[in-house]
Design goal:
about 190 residues, 6 strands, alpha/beta, 6-stranded parallel beta sheet
Length: about 190
């Protein structure tokens, strides 16, 4: 049985619902925002495709400015009303990119993250969930959601671990830039 790995040629970053009106209620929202923005910068540096979803932005606001400003392409924002991000626009883009691995961050762990991961895993994608770049409004919801995702085959990882696995080698041309991003990751 092959061991799931993050590889730049097969990975998509999916940033889920990091929106303005949800921030005041979240556990460690500053860390979530900061580390998610770093993931977007890592994606840009490693030329990983990405999507950023927004759950009902009319009611919940747009993606927070720190995360939005880290996006190199604002057209990669997708609005949704389903809790799962596996809507037609997302799944068709994944198919067009022909990538089987999703690196995931965002909110809320027990709602949109969980349902997205379950749907992606069921459709044959391998999910890696950045535990230091997800959150929820209730801390006690995060652990059970992560355990359920792992039981469905998802892999829990951290931003730094994902970055080094994607980079693979110190001789990578982006090593210096990524090293600076690694120093900025919040624990």
């Amino acid at each position: 049985m092959p061991i799931p790995r993050l590889r730049p040629s097969d990975t998509v970053l999916l940033v889920i619902d990091i929106q303005e009106r949800l921030m005041p209620t979240l556990v460690d929202s500053d860390r979530l925002i900061h580390n998610s923005a770093i993931l977007l910068r890592i994606a840009a540096e490693l030329d990983l495709p990405y999507l950023v979803t927004e759950q009902y932005p009319k009611g919940l606001g747009r993606t927070v400015p720190v995360v939005a400003s880290a996006m190199s392409d604002q057209s990669r924002r997708i609005e949704k009303t389903c809790f799962s991000a596996c809507i037609d626009m997302v799944t068709s883009q994944f198919a067009a990119w022909n990538r089987g691995t999703a690196l995931i961050c965002g909110i809320e762990a027990h709602v949109c993250i969980l349902q997205t991961v379950l749907d992606l895993q069921a459709s044959g994608h391998q999910c890696f969930v950045c535990t230091d770049a997800i959150s929820a409004s209730q801390r006690e919801q995060i652990g059970p959601a992560l355990r359920r995702m792992e039981r469905a085959g998802a892999i829990a990882t951290g931003v730094m671990s994902a970055m080094y696995e994607l980079m693979a080698d110190e001789s990578h041309p982006s090593f210096s830039t990524l090293l600076e991003l690694a120093k900025a990751i919040r624990q």
